[in-house]
Please model this.
Amino acid sequence: MLSYQCHDCAQTHGLHEGVWRCPCGGAFDLAGAPSFASFEGVDSSQWSLWRYRHALPSVGEGDHGSQVTLGEGCTPVVRTGEGVLVKLDFAMPTLSFKDRGSALLVSAAKGLGVKHLVADSSGNAGTSIAAYAASAGIHAEVFVPSSTSPGKVAQLDAYGAHVCVVEGTRAETAQAAIARVTQSGAFYASHVYSPFFHHGVKTFAFECFEQLDGTLPNAILLPAGNGTLLIGASIGFNELAAAGLVRQVPRLYAIQADRCAPLASARGVAVGESAKTEAEGIAIAEPPRLAQMLEVVDASGGDVLTVSEGEIQRARSDLLRLGLYVEPTAAVAYAAIERLGKDRPESILVPLTGAGLKSPAKAPL
Ligand SMILES: [Zn+2]
Model:
């Protein structure tokens, strides 16, 4: 049976208790979740992440619980250079990789009988949750900081979400959302705190494995803000390893903009002056799962790297010349390939996490 389990103190809580965080302050993992067992378990009739249904947690009536889907997943993998692959994870219903997590999180909410949810986001996660909530007939209130791109706010509005713009930082936006959850009793559909989100994102790892014929790249470079992709991907890779399907998980590199680099700071690495970065999707000064993110990086043998605004812009231009239009946040990890230097592994995969239309370039790139 599924339950929440605190990552810090291991105390468990039932899904129906209405808690989103442990009383000790720790964030939850999901206990009792199924995992990837074998290729035979893959439902190849499904051309979405639901082909891995045998490995996904479900909540609600029936064999597969409630399922809210917009056909997310199965994104292309493209070679862009010698030993470099990119996975177009922006090729999703709401144009960002967050749809992997939202599909599972909103499915769980529906299974729990939720009618009203609250989310907070720097843009893409909120937009994605709003789309899936609309599909499930759940009322969504989404809190965003005033720095969020107008394109993302317009998309939120279009899905019928109630948008609450907070004049403040990303952390103050989360506080406003949490206050609303406490006051209203609504379900907190947090991509940061809900482990269901990570279990949707873990399908990224399964897809890499299937698309590379049962192998994995040596290293994966991931943009890291709140760590949803880093933590989710690591769960997936570790499940593949636990099932004996791969000998080694890829080295996971967490990439941040040097203007907002709490992971590098936690490592004692000198970073640039704290300032506004174009990579708004990972501008998270105090990620609640920071310690867990560093655990994941270390366990894989990876590292934390930072890139400058100039490098982000150059990477965005490089991708554009290849015909790939992504938002600045999605170019952060691609920019870090150069930073690997002589330690550069033979094969690298970089997910491209958000479409360029989310945050159109102000000047020619
Ligand atoms: Zn705890």
Remarks:
- The chain has a mean pLDDT of 95.
- The chain has eleven helices and 13 strands.
- The pocket of zinc ion is lined by residues 6, 8-9, 11, 22, 24, 26 (CB under 6 Å).
- The longest helix spans residues 170-184.
